[in-house]
Every structure is written in C-alpha cells, then in structure tokens.
C-alpha cells in the first residue's frame, strides 16, 4: 500500500448529498471592480510598480475562463429561477471602522458607494437580486447571508468567484459548517497564483465541498439543455 493509498483510507473524502436544483442558490463572491477589473485594485498596484505581468495568469484566467463560465451559470440560474446572490467587499461606514482585523491590517477598505464596490458590468445583478456587502473574508460573518439563503429554502450552494484561497475558501468552510452542501465550481474561481488556487481546491474538495465544473452544474440546473 502506498502512502497516498494509506492516507486515503485514514482520511477519506467527504461524501455529499446529490444536488437538488430546487434547493440551490448560486453565490458569486467578490467579482467586483476592486478584485477583478483591469486598472483597479491589485492590477493598478502591479502597474504602478511597473510589473503588470505579475498578474497576467490571474487576468487571463478571469477573462478566458472564470467570467465566461460565471455568465453562463448566472443566465442558466435565472432561466429556471434559481436565486443568484452576490457578495462584495464594501464598508458600511465611510471610515470602515467596522472592518475585520484582517481587512484593517491589509489596508483593505471600499467606502460605501465607491466604484471599487461595483459588481462587474458583465455580470451586473438584476433588480431584486441580493448583494451582500462584507468587510471580512468569510461572507457569513457580520452579514445577513445566512438569513438570505434560509428565507429562500436553500440547502445547496454553488460557489464561484475570487479569490479561491481567501474569500472563497473562508466562505465555503463556513457554509459547510452551517449544514449547507457546497458545490464548488473549480473553473468559476481564480487565485492570484495558480498554485494557490490548486492547493485550495484540493483542500476544500477533500473535506468541505463537492468540486465540480461549469458543465456539470449546467447539466444539473437544466438537464434538457445539456
């Protein structure tokens, strides 16, 4: 028996209930101007430092993989009235005094109404779709996200967004502890460094979520369309 085989028997992968589309919501994490728009946030910092190439892999994955997949998932969910819920980093107060210790240490602050808090135009929420503003990595801390999902009868949560190893990972772990079945869409997420994304996906897929891809989720949402 190899070491890998032994570990697989000692720490078996979690087995999750089958996806129920009628109890599903799509959670879109932090695909906002600050985190995912060229010329803003990290992209602006990289340009100011004279090294825009440092974020080239992240930008490429966002533009070529993540956003096309997220657009397809949002459209499919809307077609069959599956709730789409967005999160964004945005403070409730002008000075961000309610921010988490982590966000304060990072100097991360988006004032209320600032353009950095705007969801990317290509996935702009429709009237009536919920946007949860947060000042933490975990989208459940200090927000009404849990209530929003409970009011809609959600038991299954499909998760996409950024950054895989930060806000996505923190939120997925909490969701699993709240008795939600999480379906983590691997090709709907991105991290600044590909290795960080891969490591996070492996960890979450072991214990906290079912890792799937966009095509699998689309087939589950609307089998007639696949």
The gist of it:
The protein is α/β, with parallel strands linked by helices and about 230 residues long. It has helices spanning about 5-10, 35, 40-50, 55-80, 100-105, 145-150, 165-175, 195-205, 215-220, and strands at about 25-30, 85-90, 130-135, 155-160, 180-190, 210.
Commentary on this structure:
The longest helix has 24 residues, at 56-79. α4 runs parallel beside α9 (214-221) and α7 (164-177) packs parallel to α8. This protein has a single domain, classed as Rossmann fold (3-Layer(aba) Sandwich). Strands 3-2-1-4-5-6 form a six-stranded parallel β-sheet. By secondary structure, the protein is α/β, with parallel strands linked by helices. The chain has nine helices and six strands.
Q: Give the count of helical stretches.
A: 9
Distance between the termini: 40 Å
- Gyration radius, rounded: 18 Å
Provide the CATH top-level class.
Answer: Alpha Beta
Number of strands: 6
Order of helices and strands: HEHHHEHEHEHEHEH
Average pLDDT for all residues:
94
Task: Describe the sheet with the most strands.
Answer: 6 strands, parallel
Number of domains: 1
**Would you tell me the structural class of the helices and strands?**
alpha/beta
CATH architecture: 3-Layer(aba) Sandwich
User: In percent, how helical is the residue content?
Assistant: 40-55%
From the spread of the alpha carbons, the general shape counts as globular
- Strand portion: 15-25%
Query: Regarding quaternary structure, how should these chains be classified?
Result: single chain
CATH superfamily: Isochorismatase-like
Uncertain regions: pLDDT < 50 for 5+ in a row? Answer: none
Strand order of the largest sheet: 3-2-1-4-5-6
């Amino acid at each position: 028996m190899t070491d890998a085989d032994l570990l697989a028997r000692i720490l078996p992968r979690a087995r999750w209930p089958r996806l129920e589309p009628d109890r599903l919501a799509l959670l879109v994490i932090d695909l906002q101007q600050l985190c995912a728009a060229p010329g803003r946030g990290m992209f602006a910092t990289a340009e100011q430092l004279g090294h825009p190439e440092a974020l080239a892999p992240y930008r490429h994955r966002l533009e070529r993989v993540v956003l096309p997949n997220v657009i397809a998932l949002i459209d499919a969910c809307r077609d069959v009235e599956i709730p789409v819920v967005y999160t964004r980093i945005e403070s409730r107060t002008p000075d961000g005094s309610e921010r988490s210790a982590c966000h304060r240490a990072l100097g991360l602050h988006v004032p209320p109404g600032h353009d950095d808090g705007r969801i990317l135009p290509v996935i702009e929420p429709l009237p009536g779709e919920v946007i949860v503003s947060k000042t933490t990595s975990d989208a459940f801390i200090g927000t009404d996200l849990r209530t929003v999902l409970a009011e809609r009868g959600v038991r299954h949560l499909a998760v996409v967004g950024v950054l895989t190893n930060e806000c996505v990972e923190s939120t997925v772990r909490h969701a699993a502890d709240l008795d939600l079945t999480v379906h983590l869409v691997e090709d709907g997420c991105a991290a600044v460094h590909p290795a960080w994304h891969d490591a996070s996906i492996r960890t979450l897929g072991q214990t906290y979520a079912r890792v799937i891809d966009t095509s699998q989720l689309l087939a589950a949402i609307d089998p007639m369309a696949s």
